[in-house]
Amino acid sequence: MKSLPARARWPLGWCPQARRVESPNFGPRPSGTEVTLAVIHSISLPPGEYGGDAIERLFTNRLDWEAHPYFGQIRGAEVSAHFLIRRDGELVQFVSVDERAWHAGRSSWCGRENVNDYSIGIELEGLEGERFEAVQYECLSTLLEAVRDTLPQLAEVVGHEHVAPGRKQDPGEGFDWALLGRRLAASGLGIFPSPTGVGSA
Predict the structure, then answer these.
(1) Do residues 32 and 94 lie in contact, with contact meaning Cβ atoms separated by under 8 Å?
(2) Is residue 196 part of a domain?
(3) Cα 11 to Cα 33: distance, rounded to the nearest angstrom
(4) Whether the model pTM is above 0.90
């Protein structure tokens, strides 16, 4: 994936390199709030099945709840994330980075509640606990660099499991935090939290 343009070329918080699929599930960030955190998630619908359109349908409130038995467990959910990285590395954007996506739910980080207020949510197509594709790490690290250029207060990258411990387990043990840390360190960003920082919410 090629380098992504910085904020001057991100009209209204939309990344030109991403396929844009607008979600209605967002709202304004609290006045004066700066984005300091990126939260990594994993998602597949139905669980363990890849490549379909169910994730996009979920985030745009168009999922047919009767199409699969699992969907009944999430019936009525109104959720979103800023970005989705598919298994083949495709980048999809659902919500402007200037807005508050509905991705973290009840959450806190380092004693600060309501993670959605001050974070970017990035979904990786995958199953919690399972491995992710090399091209997804490539896209993720490039995206994080671009988001940092766009939102310079971004300081840490954590998992959903770290901001909602006991309630969420994604992206799970299959996600290679050390690899992401190395990729970000090579870029000079230094935004990956220290090992003791992960899970210290």
Answers:
(1) no
(2) no
(3) 20
(4) yes
CA distance linking residue 35 with residue 135, whole number of Å: 26
Q: Are 121 and 49 in contact (CB under 8 A)?
A: no
* CATH classification of the domain holding 87: 3.40.80.10
Give the 3-state secondary structure of residue 38.
Answer: strand
Query: What one-letter code names the amino acid at 95?
Result: V
| Catalytic-labelled residue, pool 49, 123, 145, 173 | 123
Instruction: Give me the domain span that covers residue 32.
Output: 7-43+79-187
48-101 pLDDT, tens digit per residue, is: 999 999 999 999 999 999 999 999 999 999 999 999 999 999 999 999 999 999
Q: What is the maximal distance between C-alpha atoms in the chain? A: 47
Residue 30, in any domain of the structure: yes
Verify whether residue 123 is a known catalytic residue: yes
Query: For the packed helices 177-187 and 134-150, what is the interaxial angle rounded to 10 degrees?
Result: 50
